[in-house]
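Handout, section B. The chain below has 364 residues.
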Amino acid sequence: MFKVQPLLKEITIGDLTLKNRIVMAPMTRNRANNPESRPTELQAKYYGQRSSAGLIITCGSQVSKDAVGYINTPGIYSEPQVEGWKLVTDAVHKREGKIFIQLWHVGRMSHPDLHNGELPLAPSAINPKSKSFTFEGFKDTVTPKAMTNDDIKQTIQDFKNAASNAMKAGFDGVEIHSSNGYLFHQFFSRCSNNRTDEYGGSIENRARFLFEVIDAMKEVMPENRIGARLNPSFHDIFGITVDEETIPTFEYIVEKLNNYNLAYLHLSEPFTNVTNVPFAEPNIAKHFRPLYKGCLMINSEFTQEKGNRVLQENLTDLVAFGKLFISNPDLPKRFELNGEIARWDKHTFYTPGEKGYSDYPSLP
């Protein structure tokens, strides 16, 4: 065993000092079941309980009404939402925690039912042929509306406004959800982007939207309080498939991110087995660690042992834990004591109320 677990060591990211390297990963929990899509005391209780994490990243929060893709997810575009998030940041800061909000636009992974009958926006009019979670249950996705240049400019402004609102709400920073088949990922991928303007075609053009968003956001918040999330080998989910330009595209993005003083880069290992998938990279941390010069975070359904090991092997600087934080609000303490890890109830991941959300006990 480690004399001092690497997971429990302090680290500085940007100008923030984190008390450990255990990150609560962003997880959609669908608890903002109110007309204003605002967080409430329930979310404040949930995140406050988990403040012993070195860093909390909230559930994805839509940057505009156009960005929504699931029922009961919170936003960060209105004053009531900002006031709701203040409850959350206050609860976390009272326990000396740090918290970033994940800024989200799902793009084509939405449904007209969530947009008053209007088509969802996307880089190109290509149906992902997937499912969208609506108030009437899962429905087939539709062919989205290809974004005009004005739509793109407005969406960049939406992310800028959301970043400004995040600062007003008291967040320590933001994470751009440029991952998992959502809007940014749709721009990156040839299977979802067949544009012929400056946002399509070449790798540089398909990556342009992300960098324009970062450039806009850093006008209203410190650059070193911005993180970005990528999932390079995301394959055969939400209509995204890997091709021969996929890994070179993400290599370009990661290397260009070195020009920015970001808080961190958050990478996910593949969600599915891509060992035999042509052009996919099965070992994301090993592949991209040499390319990125800043603080790296890895997410891969980690256990305590695996998390300590990847830190010891210098494959990452931070380790993000998802479902373990659902059922273990005091996860760092359990790791410190090598204590029992409680199991989660998957049936309550996306249901309203406290059950399976804020009712998991901490150790005495």
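Note. The CA atoms of residues 258 and 330 lie 34 Å apart. Compare this with the example in section A.
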